[in-house]
Amino acid sequence: MTSQRFACLLLALGVALFPACRGDRSANDLTLAGSTSIQPFADRWAEVFMEKRPGLGVDVQGGGSSAGIQACVSGACQIGMSSRELKGSEKELHEIVIARDGLAIIVHPSNPVRALTLAEVKQIFDGDLKSWALLGGENKRITVVTREEGSGTRGAFQELVMGKTRVFSGAITQDSNGTVREIVAHDPAAIGFISLGLVNDQVRALDLDGAAANEENIRSGRYKLVRPFLFVSRGEPTGLAKAFVDFVLSAEGQALVQEEGLLPIK
Amino acid sequence: MAGAVKKRGNRLERNDRLVRLALLVIAFSAVSVLVVITIFIVGQGTPIMFRYGFKSFLAGSDWYPSEKLFGLWPMIVGSLAVTAGALVIGVPLGLSCAIVLTEFSSKRVRGVIKPIVELLAGIPSVVYGFIGVVILVPFIRETFGGPGLSVLAASIILGIMILPTIISISVDSLQAVPPSYREGSIALGATRWQTVKMVLFPAARSGIIASIILGMGRAVGETMATIMVAGNAAEVPGSLLAPVRTLTSNVALEMSYATGEHREALFATGVVLFVIIMVLNTIANATSAKRRKQP
């Protein structure tokens, strides 16, 4: 009998506390999910934002652009992060451009090839150009590294470089910017594409059509591979979500992205 | 007095029935999970196969979900190639290790090696994958050429991963052979190796085959380590040094980004994987059962 009474008590306590916990959570916690390209930058924003407003929690999750958009639609997160344009029914969501990002074509630092044209990049990724020798490099077979179908970065690359042409099926496929960079950093014959903000000294970003991959050239429009980074939400963001978006768009938030290698919206 | 005893007996009987029922429910819940999974995967995955036709799904060699091309042939070949490779590496290593452990080593050596082998089974697959990427892949790239991420790399890593399964079950079945078999063979003048080859192996055959089946199951189903070292190109590999994508990698790689028909196609991948594993298991079980019947 006593144990039964105890169980009842526990249950009642649980029922009483449950809504309290939930209420607590939605008021002070913000969840972002989506593009793995935006994730590291969102982490940085969240860190600084939480420093300034102690007691608040900002949880940044990856999962990919499409998953983030879906999570936002279903209400699993307040803000979805997308590194590609919205399409179809997704357009009903409220979108905010929070930064722009260059797409870098990267190779191993030891690769003598320093510049390519967009047409050459396209030929490499559709499998026509197979050797670095044809491009002024060593006589090595090119290891083409691409992202998986559905990735925002791959979507942007497809749109900006490939157009209607396919990335050939023999290309090595990885599921994040980080692993693409890792492979290119260790394979002298590799070529891949990642977010410009994530290029480090392990890899080299190629000049495209005569323009180096840097902010100045993107601003002037000479470097062509640029895509928007989006926050999406169901309707205008409110409460904590609004405060976070405002922070991201503020001079301070935009300065942070610049520090980390992204391009501000203006 | 007699009434009290009877009452008590009734109560015990009732308790017994309750426990039996409870255990039955628990046992069936485990089985029902399998049923639920099967229904779910088949329900999610087959409609798209009917819509596009089984042939284009199973025999199509183009996997471009954004263009509505869902050919799984490269991944089917990939899974089979990598599994075969893992068996080629894992079975000889595993069986020789099992023979050494049971027949050609002292108790002390066995006491050291067996726990180490069992420890191998406890290493998470992502760690195998990591070691593969850091050590094996660069080694293959520098020694044999190509990108390094390849059928060969995946086969070697999976071959090592299935070792503990093969070794521990083979050891158990070799040890389960009655000592009189071994003694009889040696009494007839056979050497130890002859005893192993002609007496112990045939006697332990069904257990050894079971160990290989289980190892094969692990190799077909392994995902994380494969994604990390196989390169994941959705193309039928032309050589051992070419990158390859398995069915499991295909699902894990694209699941997070997939929506709509792309997502359904990944469930269809799951259906194909399911069928392949069932077919492999059935074939393997049938052969081991047939052999067991022979004297």
Could you tell me the mean pLDDT of chain B? 89
Sheet of most strands of chain A? 9 strands, mixed
Any idea how many domains of chain B? 2
Question: How many DSSP H or I helices of chain B?
Answer: 13
Q: Tell me, what's the shape of chain B?
A: flat
Q: Largest sheet of chain B, if any? A: 2 strands, antiparallel
Beta-strand percentage of chain B?
under 5%
Reading the helices and strands of chain B in chain order gives: HHEEHHHHHHHHHHH
How many extended strands of chain A? 11
Secondary-structure element pattern of chain A, one letter each:
HEHEHEEEHEHEHEEEHEHH
Mean pLDDT of chain A: 84
User: Count of helices of chain A?
Assistant: 9
Give the radius of gyration of chain B.
Answer: 24 Å
Tell me the number of strands of chain B.
2
Q: What is the CATH fold-level name of the largest domain in chain B?
A: MetI-like fold
Any key phrases for this structure?
heterodimer, A: 266 residues, alpha/beta, nine-stranded mixed sheet, 9 helices, 40% helix, B: 295 residues, mainly alpha, MetI-like fold, 2 domains, two-stranded antiparallel ribbon, 13 helices
Structure characterization notes:
The complex is a heterodimer of chains A (266) and B (295). In chain A, 40% of the residues lie in helices and 22% in strands. Chain A contains nine helices and eleven strands. In chain A, strands 1, 2, 3, 4, 6, 7, 8, 9 and 11 form a nine-stranded mixed beta sheet that branches. Chain A has a two-stranded parallel ribbon with strand order 5-10. The longest helix of chain A has 27 residues, at 2-28. Chain A is elongated, with a radius of gyration of 22 Å. The relative contact order of chain B is 0.14. Chain B has two domains: 2-43; 63-293, MetI-like (MetI-like fold). Chains A and B meet through helix 3, strand 7 and helix 6 of A and strand 1 and helix 5 of B.
